[in-house]
Every structure is written in C-alpha cells, then in structure tokens.
C-alpha cells in the first residue's frame, strides 16, 4: 500500500511540474519571416501570434494577394519555430521525470 501512495505522490508531483512547464510556454518566442524580411511574425510557445511587422513599402503596394501570402508564410514559419522550441523546452524540463517510453511525446501536452 505504501508503494501505491508513493506512486500517486510521484504522479501528482509530475502533473504539477507539467502544468508549471506549460505555463512557461508563453515566455518562449520564435520569429518567422517572408519576402526577404518584409513581413515578420512572432509566436509564443502557446502557438499564439504576439507580434506582426509589415514593411511600409509592401503596405503601399497595390498587390493585396502578395501581402496576404507573405503574412501567411511568416505566421506559419513563426508557429513552426515556436512549436519546435516548445517541444525542446518540454523535453528538457521533464527530463528524468518519467521513463523513456518510445512514442510518448510530452511536447504536445496542453498546447
């Protein structure tokens, strides 16, 4: 019975740590750009776009479709980079907490 209580204590400890790590994801940022840097997007580890910068020269352009494509490309690159950084952060922060189980990816938890 003591072993079960110890195991439940470890599970609670792990859940608490995972929640803490997930809350830290908001502080992780990654940038993506398109059009040679004319459009830049910044995303956080929670997969939220937190900043979008568009060069004024492209805003003055009449090519709305090109601007839309560049914004989409920059946002997608920022989100991909943020996801990668988030996975790395989750792996580093939870290292040693659980046995290495093939196929188990903690990077996607809570995001």
TrEMBL record:
Residues 4-31 form a coiled coil. One of its GO terms (cellular component) is cytosol. GO terms for molecular function: DNA binding. Residues 84-111 are annotated as: Disordered. It is found in: Cytoplasm, Nucleoid. SUPFAM superfamilies: YbaB-like. Keywords: Coiled coil, Cytoplasm, DNA-binding. Belongs to the YbaB/EbfC family. Binds to DNA and alters its conformation. May be involved in regulation of gene expression, nucleoid organization and DNA protection. Homodimer. This is Nucleoid-associated protein Fleli_3885.
